[in-house]
């Protein structure tokens, strides 16, 4: 990273504030420093503390200047129309994740015929930002009162604690919607700590989906007016969504921003190596064979092959990875058809729709196509490859 010219610090002190100069090592330019100083001042103005305001601004600016992400400094990040609490040790929500979550909510709300209920599973939930924004966005436009059941899992106890705190933080906003206060439209969002590579994960998720055997944990549960023991009415999830670790160790060390490497949890970014092996080596079989950074996608597709969700969405780290995930999906569907359907009929694992979404899936040309493994795949939006979307409906 190039060194900043001393004149830039002088200009920051003279044109903005001495505190802006504190921010320059992290912000790198005057405009960003001015914006972040404004956000810090707004935060100090809106929160109470026995410490004098100017001293708090100075302390926060100094902290940010050391490279600590602003979201950790302020403790929150806007995400759609909700606010997500952020803490060190849990991945900060990204704008690209927000964009595809809103696009996904729009698709779900426009389903025809309207759903009578919705069950949503979020793997590697982190802050809980995806299910929370989905819930908030779905409570607004649904054309009929629709019970919504969501469950997020993460291996990190710190992430689960924060996800539950975010549910509590956003519950007043969720309960303001007319549907949420109606007995005909409850919502239930729960979180649990779980390793998605655990052999018992699928049973755990089936317990959530099965009204006869699932008993929700009271902690971290949000409802409208209905009792917290309300159960989802279907064993088939409407959506399986995940923003898993997907960065290779090499890319983490060479291509990831310094603030991310130094301050955000590697566990949420890079698939762990255990005893010299990536998780795929413990689960390797004839169905999947992938790079170590793609191992979570293989596991998610394995889970999807059992639970048969109507829709699947996974975040990816760029165009090449998106195409690799699509190839995993299509090659597995072809193999499943060959194994299970001697007459050549479509396998239940085959998806009617396979799409790659870019950073802004709602923007740009809707007509882009790419061929992968002999199948034409739709590409939505503008920017880098950001998500793979699969649909059986």
Automatic annotation (TrEMBL):
Keyword Transferase annotated: yes
GO molecular function: methyltransferase activity; nucleic acid binding
One GO BP: methylation
Keywords: Methyltransferase, Transferase
Coiled-coil parts of chain: none
Superkingdom field: Eukaryota
The name this protein goes by in its record: S-adenosyl-L-methionine-dependent methyltransferase
Region (Disordered): 212-235
One cellular-component annotation, GO: mitochondrion
Keyword Metal-binding carried by entry: no
């Amino acid at each position: 990273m190039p060194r900043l010219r001393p004149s830039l610090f002088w200009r920051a002190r003279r044109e903005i504030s001495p505190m802006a100069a504190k921010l320059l090592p992290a912000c790198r330019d005057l405009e960003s420093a001015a914006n972040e100083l404004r956000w810090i001042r707004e935060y100090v103005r809106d929160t109470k503390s026995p410490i004098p305001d100017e001293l708090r601004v100075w302390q926060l600016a100094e902290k940010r200047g050391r490279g600590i992400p602003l979201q950790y400094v302020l403790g929150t990040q806007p995400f759609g129309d909700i606010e997500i609490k952020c803490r060190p040790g849990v991945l900060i929500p990204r704008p690209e994740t927000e964009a595809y979550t809103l696009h996904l909510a729009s698709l779900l709300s426009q389903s025809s015929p309207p759903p009578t209920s919705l069950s949503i599973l979020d793997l590697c939930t982190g802050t809980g930002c995806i299910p929370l924004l989905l819930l908030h966005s779905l409570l607004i436009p649904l054309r009929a009162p629709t019970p919504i059941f969501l469950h997020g899992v993460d291996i990190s106890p710190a992430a689960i604690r924060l996800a539950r705190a975010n549910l509590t933080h956003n519950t007043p906003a969720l309960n303001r919607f007319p549907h949420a206060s109606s007995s005909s439209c409850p919502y239930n969002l729960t979180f649990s700590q779980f390793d998605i590579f655990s052999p018992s994960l699928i049973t755990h998720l089936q317990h959530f989906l099965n009204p006869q055997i699932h008993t929700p944990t009271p902690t971290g549960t949000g409802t409208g007016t209905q009792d917290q023991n309300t159960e989802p009415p279907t064993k088939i999830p409407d959506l399986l969504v995940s923003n898993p670790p997907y960065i290779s160790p090499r890319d983490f060390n060479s291509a990831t921003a310094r603030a991310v490497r130094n301050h955000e949890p590697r566990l949420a970014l890079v698939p762990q190596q255990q005893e010299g092996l990536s998780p795929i080596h413990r689960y390797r079989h004839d169905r999947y064979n992938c790079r170590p950074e793609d191992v979570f996608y293989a596991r998610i597709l394995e889970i999807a092959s059992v639970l048969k969700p109507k829709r699947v969405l996974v975040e990816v780290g760029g165009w090449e990875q998106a195409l690799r995930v699509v190839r995993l999906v299509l090659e597995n569907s072809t193999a499943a058809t060959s194994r299970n359907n001697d007459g050549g009929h479509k396998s239940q694992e085959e998806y009617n729709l396979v799409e790659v979404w870019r950073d802004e899936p709602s923007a740009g040309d809707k007509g882009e196509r790419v061929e992968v493994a002999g199948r034409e795949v739709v590409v939505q939006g503008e920017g880098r490859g950001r998500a793979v979307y699969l649909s059986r409906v």
